[in-house]
Amino acid sequence: MTNQEAYIVIDIGTGNVRVAVATTSGEILGIERENLQNHKDEHYPEALYFDPNALWEQILRLAGKALSQAPGVKVMALTATSQREGIVLIGKKGESLIGLPNIDHRGREWDSMIKDKSAVYQLTGRYPTSLFSALKIVGIKHRRPEIWNEFATFLSISDWVEYKLSGVLHYEHSQASETLLYDVEKHNWSQQLCNVFEIDPSVLPVLTLSGTVLGTILPAEATALAINPEAKVIVGGADTQLAIISTKPLENDVVIVSGTTTPIIKITGEYITDEQERTWTSRHTDERSFILEANAGVTGLNYQRLKEIFYPVEGYDVIERELKEVTHFQCIASLGSLVADEKTPLTRGGFIFDAPVSHLLTRGSFVWATLWDIACSISENYKSLCGVTTHEQDYIWACGGGVQSATLRQFIANLLQKKVIIRNSYRQSSVVGGVYICNKALGKAEIEPFVLEETVPQQNEQHTRLYEEWKKTRASFIEIFS
Q1: Which of 79-83, 278-282, 345-349, 384-388 has the lowest mean pLDDT?
Q2: Helices (runs of H) and strands (runs of E) counted in the chain
Q3: Whole-angstrom Cα distance, residue 327 to residue 330?
Q4: Mean of the pLDDT values across residues 434-441?
Q5: Half-sphere exposure of 70 (CA within 13 A, CB side)
Q6: Measured in whole angstroms, how far is the alpha carbon of residue 480 from the centre of its chain?
Q7: Residue 1: its pLDDT value, please?
Q8: Which DSSP string do the residues of 434-445 spell out, in sequence order?
């Protein structure tokens, strides 16, 4: 259809880069993706970086391909979403110096500069570690003088994308929650936190609200994309928050966002923290809401990698069919997921099965064990969440590519004894969340999603036994590798 109104949504995840073209009703007309190219930084023991200029060229290329799948559309707006702890450092001339992904831990060596971690937790809503942006910046300051001497400010990756599109430097609130420099309850940057990390507050960008118009696309970028030169650039937000938006949960609902990692979150209207400092509290994309989170860590990435190994050319439908045929449940996995109650993350893992190797062990057995590991990790983190706040509803929302597995949804429903509900937009939830954001900014009608499927919990004695086996397996790996 000629001149159909559409949006471009740019999504930079932990593992890949996606660019989608979608209608104002949320229909995806074109989507392209490639892996995000991270590189090891030899200046540190545990550091990764990406070249933001190469990433920008990648984004433009993917956008061109996605637009070619939707000929004749009129792009009304563009927005971005991204992994939450990744940042791009900006130079004094506005140039992009270096990109630091969420999985970069260059700041771990300077963790000791945080003298009172509990005080930082109360302000930031998360126990401070090198995962978060402040310590990444500290790492640059101490070991990369050629970058530090040019450094002027920094942006979340999604805010950087919008800066490249509009020329406006800014930081959106849900993304600012991940920096350790932002007072989550007070909705603002914190001088006290800047003092902790010895960072000059003058480097902090202006804060902006998700779903507001940042400006009009720069002429050069409109030309490069061959789109409407009057298209607006809309402030997006963190990928978890945008995924949540697409499910349209109510306050006090719980949502599982199953992507590379798996946050289990509760929408709340008040700032809640955990006495045991296990959970995270962040700003949602509106001015009044918070999200309380326990995160199961790297989960969906494990599933994706196992598919590449065992099912390189087959679709997920083949996996689901073979999972139904699995009858040999001796294979149990523990693959590095996080459990909020544990003091340290499990960084090594694997599979345990009977020896000698049974003839009943199949490739499906390993994927079954991987999905069971994900479900058990979700269950443990859900328990931690419920240790901080109540959840009385008999259902849980789920979204993200990971829950396309009906087997995983049933595992979760059985372990939590809650219905697991997915909407029609669940597979591309962060992209559809971007459409919601653009509609809000331009005054368009809200999307009306529908419930696609409900998975009803079952009583399964075998699952109860296998849950105990999973906990023993995890404890074994912790003992071996601690």
Answers
A1: 345-349
A2: 15, 25
A3: 9
A4: 97
A5: 27
A6: 30
A7: 47
A8: HHHHHHHHHTPP
